Amino acid sequence: MSWIFKIESPFQDNQEAISHLMNKVCTEAVWHSAPLTDEDKQLLTSRNELSEDFRLKMRRLLGNLLLNEPPDEFEADSRNFGNSLEWTWKSMPRTQWPNLLAVPYELAYETAHHHPELHGRAFVVDQVKLWLSGVLVVLLMIVVVIAVSSIVDPR
């Protein structure tokens, strides 16, 4: 259906969208009496690892920004914070997302799935547990079938 409603991005490129998002975040931070420093801005526009305290601060700030946005804002403003996030999420590969895009994505994922997205070792451990539990269920079913068949047809 996307070919029917061909909607063009209101931004010329991804850098314009990211700077627009950064301006919205800075305005929100000033409104909450916690303006961002130049180092904070640099961390948000990079892909470097964030400290846990800063990540929580940004999750709180970006969560408030997303919650305070009216839900029918797309018709009124295609450059609001949520729509700007959508444009940049769709136009950039996920491996190139700066922290300014990754942190709100984590929030959206956790809101939709009610658990954080697993990465690295935690993801591998979760997958191994899933496969092992499946194998155990199959083995248990085999044991039950053998036990029932020996009870029903003892030879």
Any overview of this molecule?
This protein is mostly helical and 155 residues long. The protein folds into two domains: 14-113, no CATH class; 119-155. 68% of the residues lie in helices and 0% in strands. The longest helix is centred in the last third of the chain and has 33 residues, at 120-152. It is elongated, with a radius of gyration of 24 Å. The N and C termini lie far apart (64 Å). 12% of the residues are buried.
Keywords summarizing the entry:
elongated; 155 residues; mainly alpha
Give the helix proportion (percent range). 55-70%
Q: Structural class given helices, strands, pairing?
A: mainly alpha
Radius of gyration, CA atoms, in whole angstroms = 24 Å
Strand-residue proportion: under 5%
Number of strands: 0
Structurally, the number of domains stands at 2
The profile of the biggest β sheet is: none
Low-confidence stretches: none
Rounded average pLDDT:
83
Layout of strands and helices, then pairs:
Blueprint: H1 14-31, H2 38-45, H3 52-67, H4 73-76, H5 81-91, H6 99-113, H7 120-152
Helix pairs in contact: 1-5
How do you describe this structure in short?
The protein is mostly helical.
